Amino acid sequence: LMNAAVAQNMEPARITQHCDSVSLCFSKGLGAPAGAVLAGRRDFVAEAWRVRKLLGGGMRQAGVLAAAALVGLEHMGMTLRRDHDNARRFAEGIQELNSPLCSVNLMAVETNIVMVNISGGCPSPVELCEHLWAVSEEELAKTGHAVSVLLFPWSAHTVRAVWHHDVSAHDTELAKKKLEFVARKCQE
């Protein structure tokens, strides 16, 4: 919700105005260690509260987590915009590679998520993710960096990359270089 609000430059309330309920997680993008909020009609929230208690949910001394969530909400515009910019830079790096192995639709990169299309079937999305995660002696010798990139094999032909609070512009540059290294190795 917050990534969409920042990308569309509109208030979250406008996006959710026709929803019956909304759940918002405060971790990752907003930088809080944990926490979420649920909003909806009074009877819906009362039932959710009852079920949460029934299942043993609840926290004491949760003020510290609430404080972290408030900081995340106060700085979300800047933080999420940075995540979106990093995702865009990564996607542009893929396009600049002009590799037969992978491509990206830049028009579809609106937030902190980049869907990378994998062509040719070799390597598969799972294999590509394994190559991006692993660090080899050759990589260290050729690039001077030991970089492990965690992406998710989304489908038979797609890998998903997601930026969040803890991924910097420098990390993004390293991830681009790692993908370039892996793409070259796979083409050899």
What features would you describe in this structure?
The protein is α+β, with helices and mostly antiparallel strands and 188 residues long. A hairpin with an 8-residue loop joins strand 3 and strand 4. It has a four-stranded antiparallel sheet. The mean pLDDT is 91. The protein has eight helices and six strands, in the order ααββαααββααββα. It is elongated, with a radius of gyration of 20 Å. The termini are far apart. The protein folds into two domains: 77 residues, no CATH class; 90 residues, Aspartate Aminotransferase, domain 1, CATH 3.90.1150.
Descriptive labels:
188 residues, alpha+beta, Aspartate Aminotransferase, domain 1, 2 domains, four-stranded antiparallel beta sheet, two-stranded antiparallel sheet, 8 helices, elongated, L-allo-threonine aldolase activity, ArAA_b-elim_lyase/Thr_aldolase
Q: Helix proportion of residues, in percent?
A: 40-55%
Portion of residues in beta strands equals 5-15%
Helix count equals: 8
CATH architectural grouping of the largest domain? Alpha-Beta Complex
How far apart, in Å, are the first and last alpha carbons?
A: 42 Å
Tell me about the largest β-sheet: 4 strands, antiparallel
> How would you classify the helix and strand content by structural class?
alpha+beta
* H/E element sequence: HHEEHHHEEHHEEH
The rounded Rg comes to 20 Å
